[in-house]
């Protein structure tokens, strides 16, 4: 821990020296004015906190282009690397593959690398889907998730083999030529790069990649926030209008961050107002939990963008014009607008569909009987999916608690509360780890935990959907009975 703290201190000192700044009033080299690095155990671990009260839309951090680690900047600093990468034989490699090779090459330089203080602060391992072993993949239980993990590993392996000739030409150290090293480099790029307009691979951004993630949609609406702030600023005093104009200008920016050509730097802005000490978060896209796991190696307990797709018969898809990706169950258990519309039309006799189509696409119920039928159908589908999985929602909740208690593989565990299937899974985990010789490493445990967390969140959506559908059906049943009296 002390060594890690030392690396962090050197990173921040180096960052300030080369022009990374979190202030517009302290010159070109200032850190600690708006942000400080803190630990948030319940929200992502190490991250950036507010060093003072921050206002929505305010500039938080500016990282000069010269500091960004990109394929272009790496090639400019090393002639050998540039000549090898530009060799005609390697033109088939993607920008991301080339950046991964460049990152491994730079790591091989050790302390003589210009980016050494930054490289020493990168995680030594990641938990993206491509790093999942066979045990962790199967622990996901759901076929779509298992297939996503398998595809991610196969893709990583294929790209590694493609880039092997270039890495050998650069004479990388043996440990940097391995598939494990390639997974580390590609995971670094997948989970930490930021978008830049001139390179599809993106850039690695010192200090800027310390922000943790917040899902879009968690904050109050921007209009509501703007209205309150403008009222506070003006309050019948025209002297506040300059601040209002600045705030409106700030609100037009991408509030999370982006590369700004006029200042030749990557700039980050507050997506909402923060009190001193709060963790400052970035939203870098709308992702389901499976997508977060695939690209970033984590998931959210409450992810408003999560969803579950239930299998639908071909005739259901053909009865509507909605795209398949819009037919899902929301994270709160409610069927999507498109799914309800599709099922309402499908449950209507074919010779009547044309006459009620406009009502369906307006989101209207067709009849109490139609609504009860489709909600019961959804509830039954969700129940069937849950029954076909090897553990229940309750089993997984208890299993997560048991996983947290595994500190030593040889230590006995109290397993009275978990099902026999879960006990078998715990024994299989221990056998799997011992077989791999990972007694001193609990990386596999963390990936297993993530797999169980993911399937638990998946099952919770289905359980909540069943409750929602059954509740609405009960209400409609009583409503129908009352109308018939």
Automatic annotation (TrEMBL):
Pfam families: Rubis-subs-bind, SET. GO terms for biological process: methylation. Residues 33-285 form the SET domain. Keywords: Methyltransferase, S-adenosyl-L-methionine, Transferase. GO terms for molecular function: protein-lysine N-methyltransferase activity. It comes from the Eukaryota. The keyword Transferase applies. PANTHER family: PROTEIN SET DOMAIN GROUP 40 (PTHR13271:SF91), UNCHARACTERIZED PUTATIVE METHYLTRANSFERASE (PTHR13271). This is SET domain-containing protein.
């Amino acid at each position: 821990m002390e060594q890690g703290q030392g690396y962090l201190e050197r990173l921040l000192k180096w960052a300030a020296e080369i022009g990374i700044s979190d202030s517009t009033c302290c010159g070109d080299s200032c850190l600690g004015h708006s942000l400080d690095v803190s630990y948030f155990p319940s929200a992502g671990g190490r991250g950036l906190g507010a060093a003072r009260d921050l206002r929505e839309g305010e500039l938080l951090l500016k990282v000069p282009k010269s500091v960004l680690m990109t394929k272009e900047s790496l090639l400019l600093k090393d002639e050998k690397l540039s000549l090898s990468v530009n060799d005609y034989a390697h033109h088939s490699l993607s920008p991301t593959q080339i950046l991964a090779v460049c990152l491994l090459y730079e790591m091989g330089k050790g302390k003589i690398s210009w980016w050494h203080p930054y490289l020493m602060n990168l995680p030594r391992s990641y938990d993206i889907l491509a790093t999942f072993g066979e045990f962790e993949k199967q622990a996901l239980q759901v076929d779509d998730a298992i297939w996503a993990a398998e595809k991610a590993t196969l893709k990583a392996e294929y790209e590694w083999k493609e880039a092997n000739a270039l890495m050998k030409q650069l004479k990388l150290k043996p440990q940097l030529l391995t598939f494990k090293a390639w997974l580390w480099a590609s995971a670094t790029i997948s989970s930490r790069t930021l978008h830049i307009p001139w390179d599809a691979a993106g850039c690695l951004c010192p200090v800027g990649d310390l922000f943790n993630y917040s899902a879009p949609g968690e904050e109050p609406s921007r209009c509501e926030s703007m209205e309150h702030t403008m009222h506070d600023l003006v309050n019948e005093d025209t002297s506040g209008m300059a601040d209002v104009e600045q705030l409106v200008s700030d609100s037009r920016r991408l509030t999370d961050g982006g590369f700004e050509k006029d200042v030749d730097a990557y700039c980050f802005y507050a997506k909402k107002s923060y009190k001193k000490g709060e963790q400052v978060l970035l939203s870098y896209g709308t992702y389901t939990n499976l997508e977060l796991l695939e690209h970033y190696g984590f998931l959210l307990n409450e992810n408003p963008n999560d969803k579950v797709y239930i299998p639908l018969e071909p005739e259901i898809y053909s009865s509507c014009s909605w795209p398949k990706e819009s037919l899902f169950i929301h994270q709160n258990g409610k069927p999507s607008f498109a799914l309800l519309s599709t099922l309402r039309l499908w449950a209507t006799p074919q010779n009547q569909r044309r006459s009620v189509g406009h009502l369906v696409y307006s989101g209207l119920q067709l009849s109490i009987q139609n609504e009860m039928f489709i909600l019961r159908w959804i509830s039954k589908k969700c129940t069937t999916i849950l029954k076909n999985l090897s553990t229940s929602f309750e089993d997984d909740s208890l299993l997560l608690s048991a996983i947290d208690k595994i500190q030593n593989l040889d230590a006995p565990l109290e397993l009275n509360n978990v099902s026999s299937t879960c006990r078998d899974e715990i024994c299989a985990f221990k056998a799997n780890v011992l077989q791999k010789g990972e007694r001193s490493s609990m990386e596999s445990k963390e990936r297993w935990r993530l797999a169980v967390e993911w399937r638990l969140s998946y099952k919770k959506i289905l359980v909540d959907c069943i409750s929602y559908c059954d509740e609405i059906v009960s209400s409609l049943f009583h409503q129908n009975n009352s109308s018939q009296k």
